[in-house]
Predict the structure.
Amino acid sequence: MSNTDMEHIKRVYAEADLLHSEADVEQAIDAMAASITADWENANPVIFSIMNGGLVIGGKLLTKLNFPLEAGYMHATRYRNTTNGHELEWKVRPHIDFSDRPVLIVDDILDEGHTLAAIVDFCKEQGASDVRIAVLVDKKHDRKARPEMQAHYIGIEIEDRYIFGYGMDYHGYWRNAPGIFAVKGM
């Protein structure tokens, strides 16, 4: 990356609008964990974080779920560090057998949901007894891949802006931002 490009990445963060502070996000994660625990503590689930976006929320949630579970990850993407989606690309399929078991898919955001829809379909086709979705952020708009698609566990609902932080990126950067930020003007 050139110095000019890196300066742009730094400027995006410096000028971004803070939508939810780190404390707000942590409180939302605690509430999600309580709901998931209430529903799944006796279910023997497999919990899959979706890389790379689900890395932060998956790690945070796992430490708050005080019941037996198996955890793994999947890596499927449509974005490839850009802001526009492409065809689904599998980078890593799950390595845990989840046939006849409930599956919780954990991801950073439900935006249009094309990637999540394909992953849900994959899990059902592979024999999961139930498939549910937990997302840190649900972006509010009417462009969902499937009109009926909804996450079962949502940390925060956000307006339709380009956001980053807590696992969500801006051109591959700022997944580590301590809060949820919106790009100025987007």
Q: What stands out?
A: The helical segments are 3-15, 22-40, 54-62, 114-125.
